[in-house]
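In this section we walk through a basic example: taking a raw amino acid sequence and producing a predicted 3D structure, encoded as discrete structure tokens. The instruction is simple. Fold the sequence below.
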Amino acid sequence: MINSVLIANRGEIACRILRTCHRLGIRTYVVYSEADSSSLAVQMADEAFLIGPSPPSQSYLNSESILKAAKKANVEAIHPGYGFLSENVDFAQACTESGFIFIGPSLENLQQMGSKSKAKAIAKKGGIPVIPGYEDSQKNLSKEADLIGYPLMIKAVMGGGGKGMRRVESKGEFQLSLEACQREALSSFGNSDVLIEKYIPHPRHIEVQIFGDTHGNLIHLFERDCSLQRRHQKVIEEAPSSLSPELKERIFEAALHLGHLIDYIGAGTVEFLVDQDGNFYFMEMNARLQVEHPVTESITGIDLVEWQFRIASHEKLPLNQQEIRAEGHAFELRLYAEDPRLCFKPQVGELWIKDIPKDVRIDTGYHIRDTISPYYDPLLAKLIVQGNDRLDALHQAEKALEQWKILGLTTNIPLLKNLLKDKNIVENKFDIGYIDRNLPQLMPSQNVPEKVYVASSLIKALLLSEDHLSPWEEKRNWRLDGYVPLTFTWVCEEEIKIISLTYVSSVPKTIQGKMGSIQETWIYEPLGPIHATLSGNTLFCSTYEFPFWKRDDHISVIYEEETYNVSPHSPLFKHSSTRKSDSFLKAPMTGKVSVVLVTEGEDVKENQPLLILEAMKMEHLVTSPRKGKVKRIFYKAGDIIEEGVIAIDLEEEKDT
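The resulting token sequence is shown next.
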């Protein structure tokens, strides 16, 4: 068995690999960027090496720095995880030439399957049905798109994880979508090449986990259904699927046939689209470990990372096909730091994971208190649950989500809850476009309960004095016939709310430090007298309790299992309905300016693309809110811009 390894990745997959290594007694080393200097993976490893600045192109995609760290650590092997350089042939070859074992497929396998275009050609030659498309010269893409017809899909040749992928509805959208895919592909995988495929309506996304060893043995570990996606990125995966046993067997045979055609070694996933008539089409093969591998581990009881190490050590597969069994049903839910209500806008900044589900598997790369960087994927954690059957597993997932309490940032937990309760999803009636088509119905409510604002005001009032002294000693406004009401103006979900509290009395309290126990009575007219108790990071009020986290003037509070991030109103705040007349357009998120699409002095139309921001390895289009003239552009391509900072000065169109 390999006894030392450098993990050339970050986040939850680095931590996932580390856990297996610790169990097997393998000495571990990790690499990290400047943004990840205090990450969980760095703390879990035996030793860690800084390899560059925060952008992936200067760190996790920098093979030279990674190999330098591996040589310094004097390890036997390098594990690339998934994404970044995991399917990069040049990196794998450099590892081998430098004397390291590359924990992944053979170089030949990567050359054959690492490119979607080559993989499709091999599958087609082997008699496996493939999606019609074009995978040749990058010079003829527009012409070939016209021949294929719309709608169609553009996909990064070396990509995965929904990066570098766009659905294009018409010829007019093609060029902009193509350029966006190429930029995302280059940023995420170091290769900008793309291919084009005919769009298959309403399919299921089914993938088969296969494993091969260096002794010629090849097996499958059943299938996963990954059809619940948003923006071509998976949100919920499950195993097994609802396909008929006969169709499953045909797909298993096709996956193994492809593996035998190339003498595949190691962990790999063969991905198919299955249409409504039961026809299946090969899409690609991911020659690496998948993000969703835990659902396969759950139903088979097999540690796939351990198998990777054993195969890389030239051991035979631990089990043959007949010995592998699937039991129960498993789900993986991806928890993202993003706001589904704002087109899944990535969230960056500090967060506090206050409570986590018990008795379930959680794969994460974050500490309980951590900071989300704009440079990487917004995946916070993966929740993996198992039940006796599908409905039992759904119930386990619902119960686990109710226990998850995260403060500080908006997450997709409310959306995940709605997905698990959706009638069609419960009844297994969905396809890969289901979430995107039904987003308005699946979206969490935008209504902020009034009690959230009241709780935030009480928290702020109770914390006015750092030492929690009596009201007579505190610097509250007061008069002989009673206290002047304290008024707070809050903003949450673009809603402005004014709350006025009147102080009545206090009762004896125990001082427990800066966040001690305080009990006071206030009056808020719609609710009447309120007895408020502050203890640690929880406000107790009437029959409710509000876990909270106060950072500066911002308060993150949980009410009825949902998190609300409340901020004091600022004169600079503008509601979305009033922003159309605002001259200054601000960055909607922190990120890198990929492309500026207009020039100073140019007349623009409403909804015309102005610039493209890259945040968390995805591109986000900033469009014009109205007609006008570009007066000044404050940033150029390559610049980092912070959320809320003015990006463009747009003069309003003058009436003539």
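Looking at the output, two observations stand out. Confidence is low (pLDDT under 50) at residues 465-481, 572-580. The chain has five domains: 4-103, 132-198, 204-442, 450-568, 576-652. In the next section we compare this with other chains.
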